[in-house]
Write a structure and sequence with these properties.
single chain; 317 residues; alpha/beta; Rossmann fold; 2 domains; six-stranded mixed sheet; 13 helices
Length: 317
């Protein structure tokens, strides 16, 4: 019986070879693989987390220079590697791609579905190994979409679906009845420029908050511009409103400068005290790039913060 169980576990963890050869179209071309890759190099956001969550040890990881720990990784990645008994792999800088450095890791696939790689980058990366780029537009998509793509690439689609289901169950359990129906805006203010950048519905930050039962302020859909965010002058905030404003800023000083601007201070949710600042860089990155690894970490911090804000400021409801 034990041998049968071990055989079943091995079968479930094995790549689905019947799905190969694989041809996976994306916004920059088509990923072509004859068999599941064994030496995977992830770039950009979300992808490294999903790769590890699906049980694939990467040949290298992007260095997290903003918000990373002593290892150069986000805390949930360090925890995941420790839990699996894996060493910290070599780190690469994906803010400035050194193609020569990437080549030294000898990947047989480069995965960057949530990234900003350009067509020129893609052409260079494809000379190193078959490469998966973004779909639709740079830096857009969902963690579920990335997880399904990686499940297909690794030949582990069933594992990917199970991972999505577990993570969505965690999100559903974290939702609170008092979140339902509340509208929100999320973004970052620039006090020196007098502008604020707000994220639209195809941004992962927005999708995470919507999964908790919040609703993106409908006025934002009418704001000019395209892409995953729109940048507005403070004077344009008079045309918007929301129950909550969630801000990610570089630190307390920047938040203080922002709050001191009279036009910004008069904006509805700010005037009512309905602002949730995210100043910890780990929290900023966990909400900016939600993944099966970062979502539980983020929920442990975000949900209590939202609950406390609503309890302290009844005008936010």
């Amino acid at each position: 019986m034990r041998s049968l169980l071990l055989a079943l576990m091995t079968f479930l963890a094995s790549p689905a070879l019947a799905d190969f050869p694989l041809r996976l179209p994306h916004g920059l071309g088509t990923l072509a693989l004859e068999a599941p890759p064994e030496r995977v190099l992830p770039l950009g956001w979300i992808t490294p987390d999903v790769l590890v969550a699906l049980g694939m040890q990467p040949v290298a990881l992007p260095r997290q220079s903003w918000g990373g720990d002593a290892n150069g990784l986000m805390p949930w990645m360090t925890e995941a590697l420790d839990a699996r008994g894996w060493p910290v792999p070599p780190l690469v800088d994906d803010g400035y791609l050194s193609f020569e450095a990437l080549l030294t890791h000898h990947p047989d696939a480069i995965l960057a579905p949530m990234s900003g790689i350009t067509p020129r980058d893609y052409a260079r990366l494809s000379q190193i190994a078959p490469t998966l780029g973004w779909t639709g537009a740079p830096w857009t998509g969902s963690w579920q979409g990335v997880t399904r793509q990686l499940g297909d690439v690794l030949g582990r689609p069933a594992q990917a679906e199970a991972l999505i289901a577990r993570t969505e169950e965690r999100l559903a359990a974290a939702a609170r009845p008092d979140f339902a129906g509340l509208t929100f805006l999320i973004g970052s203010g620039n006090p020196s420029a007098g502008t604020i950048s707000l994220h639209r519905g195809d941004d992962p930050r927005v999708q995470l908050l919507e999964a908790l039962g919040l609703t993106l302020a409908p006025d934002l859909a009418e704001a000019p511009g395209a892409g995953f965010q729109v940048t507005l002058g403070f004077e344009a905030l008079s045309r918007l409103d929301a129950d909550l404003l969630i801000l990610w800023q570089s630190g307390p000083e920047e938040l203080a400068d922002l709050s001191a601007h009279p036009v910004f201070a008069a904006f509805g949710p700010v005037a009512r005290g309905c602002v949730l600042p995210l100043l910890d860089r780990g929290s900023v990155m966990a909400t900016s790039a939600p993944s099966p690894l970062s979502i539980p970490w983020a929920l442990d911090r975000l949900v209590p913060a939202l609950t406390n804000l609503l309890a302290a400021h009844p005008a936010c409801r």
